[in-house]
Write a structure and sequence with these properties.
Blueprint: H1 2-26, E1 29-35, E2 38-44, H2 50-63, E3 68-74, E4 88-92, H3 111-114, E5 122-125, E6 136-140, E7 161-168, H4 170-177, E8 181-182, E9 185-197
Antiparallel strand pairs: 1-2, 1-9, 2-7, 3-4, 3-9, 4-6, 5-6, 5-7, 8-9
Length: 199
């Protein structure tokens, strides 16, 4: 009887995970990030993380997709002194044609609220303090639970705002991660030609 009960609980948990994932895919926007190393196809979870997704899409429109780039690579070997290590590539929007006086940080959509987590290929909003995310973003290489709410990468324990997932092009992400770098600074940065909604 106990074994049957455990089996039923596991089955219910799996069904819940599948339904949440299916819902997240339905309530989404897909974009293509065209880089000089190849294309990265990303689903944005607009239902789970509406504020962060809207912010990302706003800067795609406002920057005109000119001059955005990946400029940072974080590997297991280039973060000395960090007790909790991660693997990501980080990029940002070109603000040359944006009125920077109107730039405002957005509230942090914590993963314990959105139901998302930092897995291999997760797109997330970079930040310093909580509620300071704005124009910088990163993509995870490998699962990174230390970046979720309650994770230990940041001492504040608030985590980062996961808001998208790479659905194809992780080979491009890994290629960018392994390009030449001075410390964590890619030399040179990798250009993002444009980010466009998939038709």
């Amino acid at each position: 009887m106990k074994i049957i009960r455990i089996f039923l609980l596991i089955s219910l948990a799996i069904s819940h995970i599948i339904s949440v994932s299916a819902q997240a895919i339905r309530d989404s926007v897909i974009v293509i990030m065209e880089t000089e190393e190849g294309n990265i196809r990303i689903v944005l979870f607009t239902e789970n993380a509406p504020v962060t997704c809207a912010n990302f899409l706003k800067y795609i429109k406002e920057t005109g997709n000119q001059g955005s780039e990946f400029y940072r690579t974080v590997t297991m070997s280039n973060q000395p002194g960090k007790k909790v290590k991660i693997e990501v590539i980080q990029g940002g929007f070109n603000l040359k044609n944006v009125d920077t006086s109107k730039i405002e940080p957005i509230p942090l959509e914590r993963t314990n609220i959105t139901g998302l987590s930092h897995r291999d290929g997760t797109l997330s909003m970079a930040r310093s303090d909580p509620d300071s995310g704005c124009t910088e973003f990163f993509i995870c290489i490998g699962d990174q639970p230390s970046l979720d709410f309650g994770g230990e990468r940041n001492t504040d324990g608030q985590g980062f705002a996961a808001f998208g997932q790479v659905v194809s092009g992780m080979d491009v992400v890994r290629k960018i991660q392994n390009k030449p770098a001075d410390g964590q600074a890619l030399t040179p940065p990798v250009k993002i030609f444009r980010i466009i909604p998939e038709k």
